[in-house]
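Pipeline run #58 for the internal structure catalog. This entry was flagged by the ingest filter as a single-chain record with no existing model, so it goes straight to prediction. Upstream metadata was stripped on purpose; only the residue string is passed forward. Reviewer on rotation: M.T. Logging verbosity set to normal.
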Amino acid sequence: MKRFRLISTLIMAAALAMAVIPAGGVLAVSAGPVTSAVNLNPNPATINTSVTVTATVDDTTAANVNIQSAEFSVNGGAWTAMTASDGTFDSPTENVTATFPATSAGTYNVCVRGTDVSSNVGDPVCAPLTVQYLYAFTGFSAPIKMGGANKANAPQTIPVKWKLSLTSNGAAVNAPASFVALKSYAVDCTTLAGDISTAVVEKGPGKTGLKSLGKGKWQFNWKTPKTYRSTCRMMFVLFSDGLMSPQVLFRFK
């Protein structure tokens, strides 16, 4: 009896195994293509430049049919189509590529996935991307203090000095086009609460307050108005790549 039950069990298991085999005699495979070698170039990238993402999509260990498509996503956003590096999706293994703009500084997660002609979608594989500003700001110099409050009289012309270099190689930035504006906004002198969206563009004593001191060093002569008397303000500088300097507190007499 035990032998009969064993034989019956084996026959049923074989029947179930045969049931999942399609007419073509090939086992059904639900797993999608395997993605590997996700690469981002350049990385780190400079803001407002293009980044190329490449990867390999392989279906040989899954359904072993041709790749139909590949796509990438940045930080969990919409999936965007990629192209086959050789121009055509016609093989179970494809090298794929795409290019996208790096529009803002920060750290990103770029993911790639593939789909085969049997509509099996593979798991995404991701790689980190760092996007940097074009410029590196090395801080304000005397007479401005980076920490704590700066005391000044209003009206008074305040020399705001800083140094700017290229993030990529540290070269000095001597182009006036790097500068956008010096701005400030009112804050409560006790709590320092304020709204940066109310910041106004500050002016110099003449047509321009900006002056190059050479070797990446700059000076803006900030002509403060009488209306700043007995108030507190946060000051900062904006640059053409979107970089904003640290904010500095001023207490006016």
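catalog note: The first strand starts at residue 34 and ends at 41.
catalog note: The helical segments are 2-19.
status: ready for reviewer M.T.
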